[in-house]
Amino acid sequence: LKRNNRLRVRTQPSTWVFWVFANNNPAISAATSNKRFQAAVRSALDYPSFVRLAGGGAIQARGIIPSMFLGSLPRSAAVKRDLGRARSELAASGVGGQTFTLEFPSDLTINGVAFTTLAQRVQANLQEAGFQVELAGAPVGTWLDKYRSGKMAFGLSLWGPDYPDPADYLAFMPGELVGLRVGWKKGSDATLERIAARARVTTSDAARAPLYRQIQNRLNRSGPYFPLIQPTQVFAATSDLQGAVFNPLYSIDVRLPRPTS
User: Whole-prediction pTM value?
Assistant: First the structure.
């Protein structure tokens, strides 16, 4: 399509965010709920490798909130790989001798990224840090039932916004929808929950943005989520249109495209 001079093809980051999670409930897994284990996973992931896997237009997810939303983190805040730290944290966790099963929806591809391929890359990254990881793909319906039940110990997931505002991502807080799916009950992080409560009732965008950045920075330090990428969003339009651009709210704002002449 890019070679067709009658078309304009643009690639840019999507609003989807792919992430790995470690269940925070000791009753589900004493290993994945171990904070040293979680720190080891966070440091072991080779984030640029996932961006390369997703192709042109994709970016590293700097936090759980997409880059085009209010309160998103700057590029400088993105988590970086540190294999030395990953190995030392895994050793300190005392659970490094176990084999961990990474679960994912094996028949799902979003914006050109196949979960199976992504899971294989996660496995390879973790094994470089000394983890023993087995992959367990399942049809999306089967995977989704177990994930939503909160009984999945270690998994690969994604989130697409229900509406284009950072408040949608308060679902990731302890005791909220996604938090409960990863075994993160209310009261698990009082500081984070206080910031989230303030964000929920604050109305000024100037005041809201730093609150959501605080939330994500704390999640990036000690949360049970490990954001990987925002995959590529491809948008094509005929070259005789102006104003035809991808819009993260509507996909396309149909009021804007018009003939160039």
Answer: 0.94
